[in-house]
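We both want to read discrete structure tokens more fluently, so let's practise on a single case. Once you have written the record down, we can walk along the chain together.
***
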Amino acid sequence: MNAKELDFEPVTEEDCPQIVHYLHLSGIEESNHNIVNLFQWRRQYPLWKLVADDYMLLLGIHKGILFMYMPLCLPEYFNIAILKGKEIFTQSKVPFELSCYTKEGVAKVLDMLPDTQFVKERDAFNYVYEAEKLRTYSGKKLQKRRNHINAFMKEYEGRYQYDVIDASNLQEVKTFLQHWKEDENQDEYFKFEKQGAMDILGCYGMLPWEGGLIRIDGEIRAFVIGSMTSDRMVQINIEKADDRFRGLYQVVEKEFLNRHFLSATLVNREDDMGNEFLRAAKMALAPMYFIEKYRLREQNETLQSIGYR
């Protein structure tokens, strides 16, 4: 059974404005419900849509399992959209699988379908920070990170510059990404993540992202791309840096947040994918809170954690 047989249509770049509209209606702040994230991971998680008058349903595939994202709609249409999704899955004899659901979304589903099973996906929790803290790195908790920035400034002040990513430097950024960590062993996930980042650069002008880069002695050594997930939250979708330069990751993100999306009061730095190094780095930035994420499946179907997504 494939998505087309469930009356869903493949998502293309032309669907971006419509999806953005429904994402805005939903007000969801979970990182997978972000237009740049959705397009970044389309190769690994193919994406389909079903549009009704009052909601949009998005369908993905993870490890061969069809699943439905949270409905994109105003709160009053959430239940109707869930029941429509269940009806389609049931008629097609496909297990009703839901993924990337927040704690609040789970509660709504269980109110309607109390026998639904669910599992918490700790590796997929989103890390949310106070934007002003990451713009200034103020406070005792960020002293160690501030030390990295100070070390960078001491070594490279006058030798580095920040530029906005635009058509004039886009190819340079792609070249930097192409060679980024190319000598390291790359697992399948790493390759998908890198290709997804390249795809987002290729969608310049089509998706609502903004980006910036750092040059040291004229050469690009880091870049970051972000987008708004809600009216108050900016999401860091992609950040790549040459980690031979101490403090570069902190500097490029700090510069970015001080020049883009200045109305944002929160920063979503997505998840850690269960990577111990990433988890330690994200925890070191003292998150305000986590956005918990869950998978759900109808009763009588085996449900276990299957990892990221």
Summary: DSSP finds ten helices and 15 strands in the chain. The longest strand covers residues 219-228. The chain has two domains: 3-125+292-297, 126-290. The CA atoms of residues 162 and 270 lie 24 Å apart.
